[in-house]
Sequence to fold (390 residues):
Amino acid sequence: MEKLLRPEVQAFIRAQTGSDIGTLALAKNPFPDIDWKLILNQIAARNKAEDKLPTWFASENIIWPEKTTVEQTSSEITAAYKARLVSGNHLIDLTGGFGVDDFYFAKKVGSVTHCEINPELSEIAKHNFKTLGIDNISCISGDGLTSLKALDHRFDWIYIDPSRRHDAKGKVFLLGDCEPNVPENLTTYFRYAGKILLKVSPLLDISQGLEALAFVKNIHVVAMKNEVKELLWEIEEHYSGEITVHTVNITKDVESHFSFILGNKPDVRYELPLTYLFEPNAAVMKSGGFEQIAARFSVGKLHRHSHLYTANELVRGFPGRTFRIIETIVYDKISMKKISGQKANVTARNFPEDVASLRKRWKLTDGGDQYYFFTTDAHNKKIVLLCAKI
Fold:
């Protein structure tokens, strides 16, 4: 690590940021006493960090882990969101990693303990915290659960970001396939903290998570630019009340929030297309709150399985995209002649063909200011909504 921190090496790494690593690998190593692969990895990892980790990217003398670690770590935006959920004097992170989450937890909690099983990554995180001027994070190299037992301290929060085991089989994401196995260790965790914040992959089905976990109080579905990045579970010892699902879609300047009580299924009206069309954002879609959003915003649903909504009045604050419906056409060969060969943004919801096949069949090119929604209406008819975005 010391060799990588030499001023001339750091200057080279910063100067080469953005360079193609494959091309750079063929060049001569200007620092023969340092493994060229180590320097190339610093550049490759830094290349991944400019938008995701601007604080680290802008700071001097940062040491970077493997590129894949940077790819898998939380972004600063999602880490800042997580930090809003915790409070108190002491939090322990059992799966510390590169330490982005802990950097933000340290702004809200008196002290943070960062546990990392990989000794090299633990040293990197420790160095970077010091470089960034953070003095209320202590780093422990070792297994998180073992460290928790050894410390034998009562914490306000335990934070866990488990990773899928390499030997886990199948495409279905299960908490039992992760390390650490949180459902299996839940009783042990509660000996040392009353509250647990668990981050899991967005691939996890929420209903499967609920089957595996006890004492769930809140679930947060966090999306960035309409792509779900994280599922966060707040677990509180002995909690037995209602579970609230919070969805947030974070863009550059705006956060779109929608929350509902899990299990409440309000009555929904089904409507044929009216004046406006509403498409929920990815966080709402992942949450499964399809009836709840219809009731909250007093909009009709096009079909039980379409998850598109309609109304005659413009709804302000709807968590997603809003369109004016220009025309509704039946999906058949005669009607489709009208739009065949057009340039449009195509979406297929509850429709037997996917976007790629629809584009190919009807010679639709991507882009422009027209939006075509291929879907099924309340009478089970296949339709196309020709829309303009609002």
Q: What stands out?
A: The two ends are 52 Å apart (CA to CA). Residues 36-49 form the longest helix (14 residues).
